[in-house]
Sequence to fold (700 residues):
Amino acid sequence: VKAIREKCNTGHELSPLKRKSLISIKFFPKKSALAEWKNILSKGEKILFDNMNEFVKEVKLFEQIINQYIANSKMYLRQLDAQELITHLRQFFNPKEFYKREFAKFNEHLPISDQLIYNSPLLDYKGIEREGVKTRTITLKTSPQFAYAGGMAYFTKLKFPYKISLNFSFPSKTNVRKFFDLKAFFLENSVSEKAKIQKNEIKDAQNRFALGEKCLYLTFCIVLEGETDEILDRRTRELVNVFHNDLECEVIVEEEIGLGLTLNSLPLNYSSEADHSSQRYIRILQNDAIMFLPFFDSYRGLKKPLQMYISREKNLVNFNLLENETSNHTVVLADSGSGKSAFIIDCIQSAKKLDPEPLVFVIDKKSSYKGVVGPYNGELTVFDPNSSMPFTPFRGIFDDAKVNFLTKLLTTAIKLTSPTFEVESEHLSSISRALKLAYIKKAKVVGLVYSDGELKSTESGEEIEVSMDDFIASMASLTSDPEYEAMKEQIESILVKLKPFYDDGVYSKYFKGAQNNNNISGNLLFVYDLDALKDETLQTLMTMSVIEEIRSTIQKPEHQGRTGFIVIEELGMLGRDNPVARDFIIDAAETFRKLGFWLIGLTPRPQNYFEMEAGKAMWSVADNFVFLRMSPDNADYLFANSKLVDFTESEIIKSLKVKKGQFTEIFYTNKDKSTQGAFRYYQTDYDRWLAPTNQEDLTT
Fold:
């Protein structure tokens, strides 16, 4: 907000609410002055120099009108200087040469008209041809049936250059009154339904005149350009289609006065003689003029904001990923390097200001969230096989839910390493029993102290954590238990199948954990970096473990009443056919929704949302969809595979841009498309520090 406020009323890229339009004001001297000039020039009785007083007086009057107009305007206005005016006109008269070379600067010793045209144009009644580029003019014949402010935005879907020109003139009150009185007189005794409607419209207009509203004459023109008649014909059809089908009004394709209307749309090219032959005005009320202005509205965002951005049209955009009343699960899709992680970090940063502060869990790959961990007192868990493993599936509160999860985890581990092994009820029973015995034994050990030469029991506040080795020892001891003596063969088979996960097994490191790293109470941000988990078995088991830890953390008593996010930074790392991840997303979408916890899935590949089990589940449960810069191929893939993205949305997604170090463009839509729009996310220096893209940003 501070950055945006500082840039207001400047030419900076961050300056909001900025538009640019050219207003040409035409001034006509009094008729008496014109008559006197005609007499002077015809009779030749006076010297021109001696009769400049009236001319100077009219010029000063015009300057005062302009200055007063600028002073009274609520928008920022400034007069073009001679160089800017010439540049604008040259762009029209030299549509090709203008972009090929530099033109001479304004020369105050030559008339402006001598400095505009460098290649002779060809004039025709239909339009003007400059350097092979022809014009064609279409004028509005009748008022649109459904006119509203911003309605002219229908023209933005046209994919070719055009110019909208509005010529306003101000008739006298007498002329206006005569016209409406005469029309009302002829409609008075008409019995047709159409006449009755027109009569009511005239009566409404007369009432508005009585309240001080004015009538304007509006000539609405659109000038098209093209190099051939075929191109102009095609563009004319597309433009007329907008008038007929979207605005429901009639137009005239000018065949006789197109040139006059085109020139009248340019500064200094207007003449009253041309206006008499080319005026195509319709009568409108002053307050309705805004409905014809080509000022297009843009995305304004959401009603209950946590963040503020700027639209691509420079409007302020309010945003909040948590505004939906029913569900806020979110899909984020963008090419690598487009800034999707930085944007989600910005959303998390804003949500962290809520009270109570939300919980945030991030399942990541080559984590982009390392910069957030420190400022928000978070915990970073990196599954790096080359260093100590600061994680174990056994950590956390040991209750019946934990026993059930660990039983499922161990049986899943057996199935993944020994697909042909059949897990029976006896196996499940012995695993569950061994887990409980291991916890009881560990609790006794933790609760004993050596005092006065003997072990004594004492209460300990230390959290008890069972290890894989503790479980294996308890499992082996079951063979000497009379109750499990008959299951000795099954127990031994489990110990054999679990060999890769304990002692010196290939996966044992991931189940041992690290000393003094199990205290996760008090943290409200957890980042799990799974990048090193290339092995499919480890990927599945550790995903299960992380998901279970998220569940248990959310359910802690001290977190009751909190909302939060579960960010799955790279869906592809969960594996193409990982049923655990799929089931978690489907289950969490409903379970966590009731608790106010929202899933956010990110990926650079749109295929992940339509080919992966976890991706399909994420796409189906999401209500918010966020798109950043994508390649045309990826946008076309979405268009072909999802009803959410039609032609319009795919074209918007293709147009999204990223300017490194400046901004990234974002397109947001909800599931029913009732709210959607594009905006820009500008990173502050602090944002860049929180979401580093390289080691230098992380350390500075």
Remarks:
- The mean pLDDT is 82.
- The longest strand covers residues 215-226.
- Residues 308 and 604 are 25 Å apart (CA to CA).
- The first helix runs from residue 2 to 7.
